[in-house]
Task: inverse folding
């Protein structure tokens, strides 16, 4: 799990992956083979240590998949890609395990994020129903759940301005009413669609945001793929009333 923490930094990722193993395989292939090995091990047993290793490898390879130079190598490994697709439906639950590191995403979330990075996903098309009733610009808020209290305060302030509609993962903004939704691994498709139809994406920038692969995926999709207008807000610099 130490590497998964370090791999939030692209320079460290590049340094590690450029190392010579002294064998025919490189570091990317080494990690892929490890994942394949522990995938097979976890099919035959409920060994928590093996499951945690598989979880860590999924998160680590998700970090690698953000790097353009390694995408083709991952995509061209057919066995690896098959297993990643199988793992998106995996039911291993380590959320209550006493050694489960908080910075790791679930196997399902990591593999879905990995596939999203590697596969060319078609963009959603905003339906007439979505666009017809929207009389104000839509602001989508991207944040780390470590900053949830600040985020809720920001949402309240934006609503008071009555200049923007707001989309955020824990709330669905429908006309003038908020409907609670549960944040889960299944919500990425909803987040992606919200980014696509948003006029602007507001980022709550913090160390926790920087360390989160989920947040990085949202930012990458908004800025690199969709070229959305981005407004960063830094919680630690906002003056409290």
Result:
């Amino acid at each position: 799990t130490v590497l998964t923490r370090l791999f939030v930094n692209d320079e460290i990722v590049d340094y590690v992956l450029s190392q010579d193993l002294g064998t025919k395989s490189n570091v990317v292939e080494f990690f892929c083979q490890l994942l394949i090995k522990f995938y097979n091990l976890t099919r035959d047993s409920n060994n928590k240590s093996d499951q945690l290793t598989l979880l860590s490898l999924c998160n680590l390879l998700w970090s690698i998949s953000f790097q353009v130079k390694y995408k083709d190598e991952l995509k061209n490994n057919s066995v690896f890609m098959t297993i990643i697709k199988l793992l998106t439906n995996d039911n291993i639950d380590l959320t209550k395990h006493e050694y489960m590191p908080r910075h790791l995403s679930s196997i399902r979330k990591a593999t879905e994020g990995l596939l999203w990075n590697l596969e060319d996903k078609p963009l959603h098309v905003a339906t007439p129903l979505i666009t017809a009733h929207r009389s104000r610009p839509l602001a989508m808020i991207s944040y780390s759940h470590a900053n949830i209290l600040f985020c809720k305060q920001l949402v309240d302030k934006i609503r008071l301005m009555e200049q923007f509609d707001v989309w955020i993962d824990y709330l669905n903004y429908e006309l003038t009413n908020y409907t609670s939704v549960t944040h889960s691994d299944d919500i990425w498709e909803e987040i992606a669609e919200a980014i696509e139809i948003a006029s602007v994406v507001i980022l709550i920038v913090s160390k926790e945001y920087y360390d989160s692969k989920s947040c990085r995926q949202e930012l990458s999709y908004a800025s690199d793929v969709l070229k959305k207008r981005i407004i960063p807000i830094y919680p630690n610099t906002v003056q409290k009333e």
Q: What stands out?
A: Strands lie at 138-142, 165-167, 171-174, 177-180, 200-204, 230-233. The chain has two domains: 2-118, 128-237. The first strand starts at residue 138 and ends at 142.
